[in-house]
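Instructor's aside before we start: the two examples that follow are unrelated to each other. I chose them only because their records fit on one page, so don't look for a connection. First example below.
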Amino acid sequence: MKQSVVAPFYPSKKLANWWIVLGDRESRQLYVIKKVTVTKSLTAKLEFTLPKGTHKLRLYVVCNSYIGADDDSND
């Protein structure tokens, strides 16, 4: 079952989608971004290549439908 969004001004039925984003904040490098739809559970395969060296990667899950659902204020 896909999650419908409460969006009274959207012209048709809107489904909540999420973006999985993996990057390095210090180098401002984006390694992978993938759009997913979450049902009861989600398994996603992310493929990327890192250059040699040390990396401080950060994984974000960003909602395209609700403001604040992806809040990262605990940074």
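Example two begins here.
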Amino acid sequence: MREYGMEHVAIYHSHPTSEAVPSKTDREVNYYGPEMVHFIISLKDGTPVMRGWRLTADNATEAVWETF
């Protein structure tokens, strides 16, 4: 990415059996700080649900975003 002048704008992962809400582990292993949006996709109920979050070790704030 650096070679092509690209940068991270978001990270995503799934929660197969739980809500699209950051876990304590998600917050603790956040290496990018609150600038990076973390999208979490819940597969709990069969229909994917995606929410975005800005994380710190102690807090999670839902990110405002829109799709195009």
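The chain has a mean pLDDT of 90.
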